[in-house]
Amino acid sequence: MGNVWLSGDGISIVNPQGKRIGVIRINGPAANCELGADGYLYIAANKHLMRVKVKAQKILA
């Protein structure tokens, strides 16, 4: 399968072997995140909604 994107203190990207391979730092904790089919990662955090362009693609099952 693919990588897991986790919200918390920013957004962590973890590969299938359990190793953190990246982090997106934001100003404060993230409540939730979702990869959109449009090539963006949407992040909900406190009073903000952020959109970040990513190379990852959402796998639709």
Ordered list of secondary-structure elements with their pairings:
Blueprint: E1 4-8, E2 10-14, E3 20-24, E4 32-35, E5 40-45, E6 48-53
The count of β-strands is: 6
Structural class: mainly beta
Q: Into which percentage range does the β-strand content fall? A: over 45%
| Total DSSP helices | 0
Estimate nothing, just give the exact number of structural domains.
1
| Mean pLDDT over the residues | 89
The biggest beta sheet, please? 3 strands, antiparallel
Description of the structure:
With 61 residues, this protein is mainly beta. The chain has one domain (4-53). 0% of the residues lie in helices and 51% in strands. It is built from no helices and 6 strands. It has strands spanning 4-8, 10-14, 20-24, 32-35, 40-45, 48-53. The strands form 2 sheets. The protein has a 3-stranded antiparallel β-sheet, with no helix packed on it. Strands 4-5-6 form a 3-stranded antiparallel β-sheet, with no helix packed on it. It is globular, with a radius of gyration of 11 Å. The chain starts with a strand and ends in an 8-residue tail after the last strand.
